[in-house]
Amino acid sequence: MRLSTVSISTRISCLLCSLVLIACSDSSSQRPARKPAEHIVETVMANQQTISVSQTISGTLQAIREVRIINQAQGLLTALPVYPGDKVQKGQLLVQLDSSLAHAEMQKAQATLNLAKVDYQRLKDLAPRKLASESEVAQAQTRYEIAVSDLHLKQTRFAHSQIKAPIAGIISQRLAEPGDVIPLHTHLLTLIDTSSLKAEIHLSELLLPLVKIGNQVEITIDALGDKIFKGSIKRIYPVIDKDTRRGVIEIILQPVPEGALAGQFCRVKIKTQAKARLMIPYDTIRHDKQGTYVFSLNENKAHRVNITTGIQQNNLIEVLNGLIDKQLIINKGLFGLKDKMTVKHITK
């Protein structure tokens, strides 16, 4: 009888627990589901703007002409009368090599020529009287022509014992001293033309199509303070560096301002002609393996738009294709944003 009472109590307890569980289950099923957090974004508008691109690029002043003075005859250097910084005129003597041997050879060649000329003339005079054969005359003529050529050769060698300035300019290097025995083709001096200076600067491939030969530029030279000098684009090189994506343009500075020297650091400011460009803030763009893109906003959804960019001006960047004027671009809330994600657009 006692076992029966315990069994009944146990069954009653189980029944009560089941009822409690069912009640809890019904209560939780009636509780509303939690809504996912909203992704809040802000936008800016792509704007068509008339912009003139201005960029300052550093460079180094160089002489437009730099001539390396190299000897074409070997021998003892007897005179080198110029030093770095000396101004020289075109045709001025720069180098003198020992010319005694070359002079003696030239005199010998002159004497040989004189003898050959006399012999040739004598046989020519004898030929009409049959006192000299045509063969003898021909041989004498050949000896005479050889003697003429040999004299020219010896005169050239003698002339090579002196080197004169090919241009007017300033000596920038002196690489030998009198008393040195100079081998053939030795670099002895460097002569630079300082009547005009140039600077070669590297410009982005995006800006190269916007500049032309003859365009004016502004140049500042650090050593001369903040004064601005005028220059112009002299040459645009036709090759782009595949690693840097930059091309070389040559800027000419003429007339040369007082105090400007080859080797000085300079800054060149290039300004392009103003034109309409579609601009967006630089910090709106993203990059991945598929390329460069932004998120546009349409009907509370973010849409990935692949774009091609152009020049950058301060905190703005040009869009060459992919967007249109006045299109809304997401600029805040980009973290975690995905294509076709529903967002909440707020404005400030």
TrEMBL record:
UniProt GO molecular function: efflux transmembrane transporter activity
A single Gene Ontology CC term: efflux pump complex
PROSITE patterns found in the cross-reference section: PROKAR_LIPOPROTEIN
Annotated NCBIfam families: RND_mfp
UniProt domain CusB-like beta-barrel: residue ranges: 201-271
Residues covered by the YknX-like C-terminal permuted SH3-like domain: 278-344
Entries under PANTHER family matching the protein: HLYD FAMILY OF SECRETION PROTEINS (PTHR30469:SF15), MULTIDRUG RESISTANCE PROTEIN MDTA (PTHR30469)
Domain CzcB-like barrel-sandwich hybrid, chain residue ranges per copy: 66-192
InterPro entries given in the database record: Beta-barrel_RND_2, BSH_CzcB-like, RND_pump_MFP, YknX-like_C
Short name of any one Pfam family annotated for the protein: BSH_CzcB
Protein name: Uncharacterized protein
Gene3D superfamilies reported in the protein's UniProt record: 2.40.30.170, 2.40.420.20, 2.40.50.100, Helix hairpin bin
UniProt source species: hydrothermal vent metagenome
